[in-house]
Amino acid sequence: MNAKKVILVVDDTVINLTYASEVLDQIYKVIPAKSGIKALELLEKITPDLILLDIEMPEMDGYETIKKIKNNPKNANIPVIFLTAHSDKENELTGFKLGAVDFITKPFVPEITLARIATQIELSEYRNNLEMLVRKKTEEVETISLQAIMAIANTVDAKDVYTRQHSMRVAKYSREIAKRLSWDEDAIDQLYNLALLHDIGKIGIPDAILNKPGRLTDEEFTIMKTHTKMGADILKDITMIKDVAKGALYHHERYDGRGYMQGLVGEDIPIVARIVGIADAYDAMTSDRAYRKKLPMDVVRAEIEKGRNTQFDGELVDIMLSIIDDGIDFPDE
């Protein structure tokens, strides 16, 4: 047997509360409240399927009560039907603007009241089910999109033997930095996925530039820098990973404002991009590249220190140095 739907009835008159209970009790579970204040207290403990709310009450009238109900995300979607002894256009317009779904005039007719309540509960269920379905389908689409983007990111890393698993290592170093910043698990996971995709824009860079064994010309470097903007454009519609486009767009900004593409300074650079930026630089220095072998660790450590508050956020420099000192390394899998 299905459990009864719950109706919260809010009215300052005992007779009205009693009558409403008698009318509704055969079909619904009725919870009475003698004031708006009492109703708000009850809503901290219960989530009714519908609220019948009197307009004219002392201390806190129905209009003020519904404002507080709708301002609480937990209760915002509960349908509210106003009870009123005065049916007029002005009252109804005010009520609808505040979020009411219907009006019932007192003294109410049982058959009409039951019909209106049933209609609004049914509509609320349809809306909730539809929102759930839309969320599910959106997640499915985004999952497919993310899988496709990950395949592209892997393709970028595979374009050159020297950058094999670069994105994976940057993601792991970024995750380690976030852990040492005491981020929560969800934020750490988000950063990890963001870092995996930070170089995705390189898919649009010609192989001749990406794999050039020597120093890039000014013209070639100008083209190389566009990978940040291309990456952000590819990722801009992905909502599953927070700030993922910012990670791609800003990871080559410098703390002193001399980076690219926007020339952002200090904390104007999103923290996710600052983290990916130092992880990216560290992995680049500790990996073989087409134009050089990996650098000795003492040189790498000196370069990280040298970049304090110029290329890198000083706090992140301290964390990166602690990772080096702890001997943490992420070899290719």
Descriptors for this entry?
about 325 residues; alpha/beta; Rossmann fold; five-stranded parallel sheet; about 55% helix; elongated
How would you sum up this structure, described in words?
This protein is an alpha/beta fold and 333 residues long. The protein has 2 domains: 6-132, Response regulator (Rossmann fold, 3-Layer(aba) Sandwich), CATH 3.40.50; 159-325, Hypothetical protein af1432. Helices cover 54% and strands 7% of the residues. The protein has helices at 14-24, 36-43, 62-71, 89-98, 110-158, 166-180, 185-196, 207-210, 218-225, 227-235, 244-250, 271-285, 297-306, 314-325, and strands spanning 6-10, 29-33, 50-54, 80-84, 102-105. A 5-stranded parallel β-sheet has the order 2-1-3-4-5, with helices on both faces. Helix 1 links the parallel strand 1 and strand 2 (29-33). Helix 6 (166-180) runs antiparallel to helix 7 and helix 11 (244-250) packs across helix 12. The longest helix has 49 residues, at 110-158. The relative contact order is 0.08.
